[in-house]
Amino acid sequence: MKSFLLKIWGHYVRLTARWPSIGSIVPFIPLIAAWWIVTALQIFPSVFLPGPVEVARSFGNLVYTGVLPEYLQDSMVRLAVGTFWGIALGIPLGILVGLSPRAHTALWPPLLFFQAIGDIAWLPILVIWFGYGLTTMTVIIVYTVIFPVVLNTVLGVRSIPINMHRAALSLGASRARLLWEVVLPGALPNIITGLRNGLGYGWRALIATEIIVGTSGIGFLMFDARRAGSVVEILLGMIILGILWYIVDGWILAPIERATGQRWGLVTR
Amino acid sequence: MTRHWLSSALWFCAPFAVLIVLWAVLIPYFNVNPRLFPHITSVVQAGIEGIQDGSLIQHIGASLLRVLVGTVLALLVAIPLGVAMGVSPVVSSFLTPPFRFFSVLAGIAWIPIATLWFGYGFGAITFVIFNAVFFIVTYNTLLGVSTIPLHVRNAAASLGAGPWAMLTEVLLPGALPNIVTGVRTGLGFAWRGLIAAEMIATNVGLGYMLFVARDFYKTEVIVLGMIVIGVLWLLLDRLLLAPIERATIERWGMVQPA
């Protein structure tokens, strides 16, 4: 029996070595099985904890009626627009603060403070300014994404040894080329890390905003279900959020981060 | 040394002085409707009133208590669990994906179901904070323990370290930098989750204070709340968490041999 189990484990290890994505899916099978058993035994009332079958059925329903694809699209579009502006504003600002000591003394402390206020705390006053709607959500996501990007860009720019600047300048590089070929590549690994953190926070901010002021989106789906007391859809929303972020973070952002780190990371000796 | 510290503190405060002056001058100058953005005097007044009638202190106290209870409970469970799971490479490689999945969900996404399970109030909010801290700290502890080089553990074992010495002298110190980073990240999510949860699910706390003020267009209370939230987090993060993180990494961080 034991050797049989070991053999299976050996196959599994070899399989995951060849296709790492299998290794990140298989561990969920016993988890789902445990969930199914707990709900089938009625340990908790099914109103409080519905089983995987019901959640899958509600997934089918919501996809069939078109609610889920629409909400999903709404959430993703909001996140994409917010992230775009966060990057477009954050990187130039970060480079400015990183390169100019004067800008650094003037802007660094307020940046830290406004980051500390946190996205959600802006929600009440933004609702007063812009009402319930897309503007409020976009502002919140931009606000959330921009700070990690700026702070990390500053760190990245300042971590480039001054001799690199001098070498490029003495080889006859213009200011623009210095920016393009020394500063940006040198700061890129940090910028990507900042972007990854920023998206992590922005994602949560989006959910919170949709819960509180939303009229559509995954967060709204969950809170609407909560109002109706339907745990099935709340669980479905949580699972979708988890899977989406798992894909975005694990299969897109983390590899990009690793690749830039390898390609442009400064090897300090 | 003291002078240096003093002058850098002054430089840190200088931009805020400029911002405050701008605020004090520009808002009356352009005659901004106080329903859109408050005068600085009315914010100060709201602060003084809040302290005098005790409501501000009560809100801050409630928020901090929730964070404290949730975090301490989470750490008590997360660190032993993370170490236990990280010891075996088989278990840790198998459990890493689920824990990553849940640490992704951490915080705000739990609010709807927390309010359903625990009702509106202390339980639901503490549960949200517990979740935000628990999964991230467990995941980081797991990661920290499983990245301790095996030869370090073998060396300790062959020098005669028992399970207890192994735990306190190898596993915990080795994972400590990761654990502390996890606590800092987790608290960052927990703090935001707290504000969001208080807006939805309670009748006391900073988030609630902001959200109720919005109903009456009391922008001075909103701005006051935002400043309090920012200052509290800045103090917590910069004066407590960041120094601890730096100290542990300097003291116990793995120094890669060249």
Would you kindly provide a written description of the structure presented here, covering whatever features stand out?
The complex is a heterodimer of chains A (269) and B (258). Chain A has helices spanning 2-18, 20-23, 28-40, 52-65, 67-99, 101-117, 123-130, 134-158, 162-170, 175-213, 218-228, 231-264. Chain A has 269 residues and is mainly α. Chain A has 2 domains: 2-40, no CATH class; 54-264, MetI-like fold (Orthogonal Bundle), CATH 1.10.3720. In chain A, helix 5 runs antiparallel to helix 10 (175-213) and helix 5 (67-99) crosses helix 11. Chain B is mostly helical. Chain B has 10 helices and no strands. Chain B has helices at residues 2-29, 40-52, 55-87, 89-105, 111-118, 122-146, 150-158, 163-201, 206-215, 219-252. The two termini of chain B are 34 Å apart. The mean pLDDT of chain B is 83. Classes of the chains: A mainly alpha (269), B mainly alpha (258). Chains A and B meet through helix 6, helix 7, helix 10, helix 11 and helix 12 of A and helix 1, helix 4, helix 5, helix 8 and helix 9 of B.
SSE pattern of chain A: HHHHHHHHHHHH
Low-confidence stretches of chain B: none
Share of β-strand residues of chain B? under 5%
Strand content of chain A: under 5%
CATH superfamily of the largest domain in chain A: MetI-like
| Topology pattern of chain B, helix = H, strand = E | HHHHHHHHHH
Number of domains of chain B: 1
Strand count of chain A: 0
Q: Please identify the oligomeric state.
A: heterodimer
Question: Average pLDDT across residues of chain A?
Answer: 83
Question: How many independent structural domains of chain A?
Answer: 2
> Class by helix and strand content of chain B?
mainly alpha
